[in-house]
Design goal:
There is one protein chain. The chain has 454 residues and is mostly helical. The chain has 20 helices and no strands. It is a multi-pass membrane protein.
């Protein structure tokens, strides 16, 4: 009986990993490429054509997150109510249409407005995707599944940066400047994949035609049992009380530090690389700049995979999240003193590896003590507060660069926020008197949460 169940379990998880994760990861790939496309457009003609200062470029990059934040929690609650298939497809088509309009942006005011509306359109996608995948697999398999999903983010830059470079080089196509061609080229896939998602995704294992009856029964039973156990031991954690839950807010602050580092790199790395020409006399064409931008993210994808594999084997421990935060916080300011393009990229690579190693393991934590609508609200709240860093990183980095004349102060600020994430992660664990792993008891305000090994 146990052997049969083990076979069914392996088969069910494998099918979820093959059937769902690559497609949702593709959606995430397009999502991240569309929101960061401005980072490639800026130093390759847009900043000049629209007469943008570094602060204006930073504000345009960051204002996306204001619209995103305003509708994040409501969007995720709507996903819980209407189903992931419909809601994720709707989000994707909406942001694809808005992204397409960037092709014809004419001035800084229009850029600000479109970036804000893009945030509104994308609101809820990322936490919705996290919640969607979490509802398909029991906790002990979640770290692996989320790691496979999260691989899309670094690979977006590995593949997307050279792709953006190639599109920008098509200057004159349709009578458009190269950076406008790039916006057009990355927007259309969002609309197409969004339409396909409506028909391809299923809301739950019970509705998946590609699972056998035995696999449906096992997955549905395992998930329902876990849901009841979590709900029984955390009856006080409702949608309303999520907003007063200190552990949720601490997780949001930890996530803030990681996202600050992620988007400071994402938005300004292409600009920093373009600056190599002035600092070191190096000459690169647009495609070469795209390839250089991609360099840190391939090792980051490898680090993400193996770090998360270790977390799946051992169970997610405090140090799986705290150590990458520490390494990232210490490494990013060192890039300022590297002395050459190669050394600078090498240090930035260490930072990128650190950020991506931590993120998928971080997201296994909230669903250890939240379930149902509370999980939807909690994940959305953490992502909402964390994404304040998306606005802060872009605007503060650009403003500090204009104010100080360089990236020294901005990069020390990035390092400081990541070190704060490390400190808070350790404090979170110790507050629950857990020295080894992140048990749900450490996350439950009453100190009696249900523990599920991810």
């Amino acid at each position: 009986m146990d052997t049969t169940q083990s076979v069914v379990e392996r088969s069910a998880i494998r099918k979820v990993a093959i059937r769902l994760v690559p497609f949702v990861a593709l959606m995430f790939f397009i999502n991240y490429l569309d929101r960061t496309a401005i980072s490639f457009a800026g130093p390759n003609g847009m900043n000049t054509d629209l007469a943008l200062s570094a602060a204006q470029f930073g504000f345009a990059s960051g204002v996306f997150f204001i619209g995103y934040i305003l509708l994040e929690v409501p969007s995720n609650l709507a996903l819980h109510k209407f189903g992931a298939r419909r809601w994720l497809a709707r989000i994707m088509v909406s942001w694809g249409i808005v992204s397409l309009l960037f092709t014809w942006v004419g001035n800084v005011e229009q850029l600000y407005i479109l970036r804000f509306i893009l945030g509104v359109a994308e609101a809820g996608f990322f936490p919705g995707a996290i919640l969607f995948l979490s509802l398909w697999v029991p906790a002990r398999h979640r770290s692996k599944i989320l790691a496979l999903f999260y691989l899309a983010q670094p690979l977006t830059t590995v593949i997307g940066a050279p792709l953006a470079g190639l599109l920008i080089q098509q200057h004159g196509l349709f009578g458009l400047a190269g950076w406008r061609v790039m916006f057009f080229g990355v927007a259309v896939p969002a609309i197409i994949i969004g339409v396909i998602a409506w028909f391809y995704l299923a809301d739950s294992p019970a509705k998946a035609k590609w699972l056998t009856a035995e696999e449906k029964t096992w997955l549905t039973g395992a998930l329902e049992k876990e849901k009841k156990e979590t709900a029984a031991s955390n009856k006080h954690v409702s949608v309303r009380t999520v907003f007063g839950n200190g552990r949720v807010w601490m997780l949001a602050a930890i996530y803030f530090g990681f996202i600050y580092g992620l988007y400071a790199l994402g938005f300004f790395l292409p600009t920093i690389i373009a600056g190599f020409e002035g600092i070191y006399g190096a000459k690169f064409d647009v495609f070469q700049k795209g390839l250089i931008t991609a360099i840190p993210y391939l090792p980051a994808a490898i680090a993400l995979y193996f770090w998360s594999k270790d977390a799946t084997k051992r169970g997610v421990k405090t140090w799986h999240i705290a150590i990458p935060a520490l390494v990232g916080g210490l490494s990013i300011p060192l890039a300022l003193f590297a002395g050459s393009p190669a050394a600078t990229i090498a240090v930035i690579t260490i930072t990128a590896m650190s950020i991506f190693a931590a993120l998928p393991n971080f997201w296994t934590v909230p669903t250890q003590f939240l379930t149902g609508a509370a999980a939807a609200a909690g994940i959305a709240l953490i992502n909402t507060v964390g994404n304040l860093a998306g606005f802060s990183a872009g605007y503060i980095t650009g403003w500090l660069k204009d104010w100080t004349g360089g990236y020294t102060v901005p990069m020390f600020v990035v390092g400081g926020f990541m070190l704060l994430s490390c400190i808070l992660m350790v404090a979170l664990s110790r507050s629950g008197k857990v020295s080894e792993g992140i048990a749900a008891e450490a996350l439950d305000p009453a100190g009696a949460g249900h523990h599920s090994e991810p």
